[in-house]
Design a protein that fits this description.
27% of the residues lie in helices and 15% in strands. The protein has helices spanning 9-16, 35-45, 79-83, 86-103, 121-134, 177-181, 238-248, 302-305, 307-331, 353-356, 361-364, 470-473, 479-498, 508-517, 537-545, 567-580, and strands at 25-31, 51-54, 138-140, 145-151, 154-159, 162-171, 186-188, 191-193, 207-212, 216-219, 288-290, 296-300, 336-338, 372-373, 378-379, 405-409, 444-447, 459-461, 551-556, 559-565. A hairpin with a 2-residue loop joins strand 4 (145-151) and strand 5 (154-159).
Amino acid sequence: MMQNPLDSPVQRKLWSAVPSKLPLYTELLVAGGGLSGCAAALSAARMGVTVTVIEPTHMLGGQAGPAGVSAMDVTQHYQEQINGHGMWHEIRSRITDYYRYRLRRHVNVSQYRDESFAPNPVVVDRVLTQMLKEAGVRVHRNVALQAAEIRAGIAKLRTSSGAISGRLVIDATEDGFVTRSSGIPHRLGNVIGGQEGYGSADPDQINLQAITQTAIIRRYEPGTMPDELRLQTPPEGFYDALTEIVKGYPSGPGRARLGHPNGFAGYRGAPDLGGKDYQGSEWEQITRTSLNFCNDQPITAAYFTDDAARAEFERSAILRTLSILYYLQHHLGLDWSVATDEGFGEGPVRRDPRVTAGLPEAIVRHLPPIAYQRESPRIIGRSTMTGKSIFRTRNRTCSAWDSSVVAVGTYPPDLHGGREPEDLETDLSETLADKPAKWREGPFPIPLGALIPRGNLPLIAAEKNLSASRIAAAATRLHPTATAIGQAAGTLAGLALKHDTAPRHVPTMAVQAALVLQGAHLAHHPVLGLSREDDDFAAVQLSIVHGLVDTVDVSRPNACPHMRLDRERAARLGRSLLDEYRDWLVAPSPDSAPAEDSSACGPLA
């Protein structure tokens, strides 16, 4: 039996700690410890900034952690471009090494293919914890956010553990809490709100993308499932959901595995921490998976404006997932139930009783502690991404490029609900024509202005809270993209703080230069023969982004296109740009540089 990484007194202590008070002040305050928040904190801390992260749950990782979306959606055609660069590359490598050297098992276990990436949330939390510790970031878990005050010269959060102020705040929350509660102008669904609310709009009539209460479940050997993990009666709403459940279980998506009792397990498969090892192509053998299919719960904007409505939506989301579990157990006779070793049940903070009252406690306590939220309130930024700005004319092509790019996405605009014509933003002239009916992946730029609110505010947006239309935002919520956005936000914050200026006054070129020197990828395609380890990498990237050299796209079978260019000329011109902004760049602090051993296998001390 493999030792479970959950069996760590240090990790349990971190999970259980509830701060009695917070420091009164920090340079950079990061609200939200998801992938985007952690990437922001790491980037800024390595520039010598004092960083404090506030996380409402007991686990780090956001949608990859306490939300339980463990099978990470990555556009596989662009895996070389995505996986080989930036903070996502570092986090993914650290996690992969943890599985390779510490657990000695595969992490490429989902989506029926061996090119996948599906780490357990408990491992994501452990690796992020180690990385933040190495960088000197202070992390406070189990701290509920209660209010935010963001205005010129003031960046303050009120929490369950007291108030804390910072010179800058990054809103990397899963639900845009800082943006929404501070009353700065923002979009919620298809309306604009702020200090005066949302005008005459009724939040309960504003459709948003669905939430999902995921569950990580495992197949128990016959006769070994604890009685309390078996549902005894159909959950409320089971028969209403049955038609949808039958479409997806047990075969999973598509028709390739019709009738196979383990077909669903391969879609969102997860490594079995205490069981057999397998890869994604061996889906028949998978014994642990995430329920994140056929259990979307539609919501309205009232989810963000009314606590009672939020509780009702989340309760309904749990019931949808329990209905799938009941169907597996009683209609299909399969011994699947919640896994109890992912760390979800270890936190001291329990959900709103209105959400869980009357539900089977032994099962619900091992569900991810938050729902997966696909859409959040979004700042009104200095620039706004739209469906038109990320539009790709056909599959596996790139959109028009923006010379102010600070992060790259590749996913299609995948709206899970709220996709009728009346659900889109009329002030942005957005229509369904801006959302291709067919799958169209390919690179698109995320501009710096989308992270910076209008006005002179000490706030930077990360996670899903950047300035974007609903269509564009639906393409940015993927794990790699959210991480890249966080890295850009943290880099911008680091430069602003080190130069004692507002984020809006930091030159775009300075942010880009800092990012490419960190190994981030900002061009629309990789360059043939150029890796992030090459001395010319940063300079060539800048030349491409600013159109200083001609490029030729070179198609490659079953891989993303690459570019061919005059590398010597590109490097020479790019170096001149780097030299021009050299005074803006901040060398990493010696005390906060990443450890040489990137295996993340050491104990949490």
